C-alpha cells in the first residue's frame, strides 16, 4: 500500500510503500481512506509537539479522515493516538470514534471542515452554557477554525458576533459570513460586552486584550467565559492577575481531553449535516497524497485535504 511516511520529526513525510494496516481490537476495522485533512493538530502530532503526540517514529500522519468501511458506507473517523494515521490508502479506525455520513456528502469538504468546525461547535455546546441571543467574540477569526466559529456562533443563534484578527483586509470577508462587526486587536474594546470569547490565538494578543475589554465592560459582574481553543500566537499567555479579580472572568479550554471523546463524537453528525447543507462555508483544497512532501508546508489559506 502507498502512504505518507514520516521518518524524522524535522523533515516532511514522503510518499512510499508501507505495510498494510491490521485491525486487532474488537471495535477496529480496516477502511479505505477517501480524504484526510492536513490540520495543525496533524502537524503538531507529527512533529512531536502536541500533548497527544506519541513521539514514536516512523509514523503515518493523519488524525482524521473520511473513509469507506467494508460494507461500503462513508464514515468520518477521528483516530486516537497512533503511529498509523490516515495519510494512507487504508487505515484502521475504532468504530466508536466514527460516525456514518449521509449519502451525497463531499468527502473533501467534510475532511476539511470537521476538525476546524468542531472546535467552536463543541466549545459552544459542551464547554459553555451558551444560549441564543448571547454575544460572541472570535479571536483569530481569519483562520479556518475562526471563520467557521463565526458561522457556528450565528447558526446557534448568537445575537452579535465580533470577528477579531490582526489584519483588517483579512477580516473584511467575515461580514459576508455573518460577522456583525470586525476589529483588529488594538480596537478590542468594541467587544467589551460579549458573553463568550472563542480564542484561537492565545499568547500575548489574548493577554493584552483582557484588561481593555474587562475595564470597558458595562457590567463587570456579568459572566464572561473565555474559551482557549488554539494557541497560534503562543502556548503561554501572561494573564494579569487583576483580570481575574476585576471582572467575572472564567477561563476554560476546549479540546481533546477537556471534553470526553463520546461527547465530541455526539456533536459530529449535526456538524457534518451543516457542512453538507451549506450552512457552513468551508475552504478546502484537494491534493493527491502522492504530493504530500510539497503539501506539508504549503502556504495557503485553504485547508489542504490529501486524497489517496
Ligand atoms: N482545541 C480544538 O478543538 C481545536 C480544533 C481545531 C483547531 N484548533 C487550533 O486552533 C488554532 C487555529 O486553527 P486554524 O485551523 O484556524 O488555523 P489557520 O487556518 O492556520 O488560522 C490561523 C489563525 O491564527 C492567526 N494567527 C496566526 N499567528 C498569529 C499571531 N502570531 N498573532 C495573531 N494571530 C495569529 C491567523 O491570522 P492571519 O489570518 O492574520 O494570519 C489565523 O486567523 C490552531 O492552534 C489549532 O491547533 C484547536
From TrEMBL:
One of its GO terms (molecular function) is oxidoreductase activity. InterPro entries: GroES-like_sf, NAD(P)-bd_dom_sf, Zn-ADH-like_protein. Signal peptide: none annotated. It comes from the Bacteria. PANTHER family: SHORT-CHAIN DEHYDROGENASE/REDUCTASE (PTHR43677), ZINC-CONTAINING ALCOHOL DEHYDROGENASE (PTHR43677:SF11). This is NADPH:quinone reductase. The lineage of its organism: Bacteria, Bacillati, Actinomycetota, Actinomycetes, Micromonosporales.
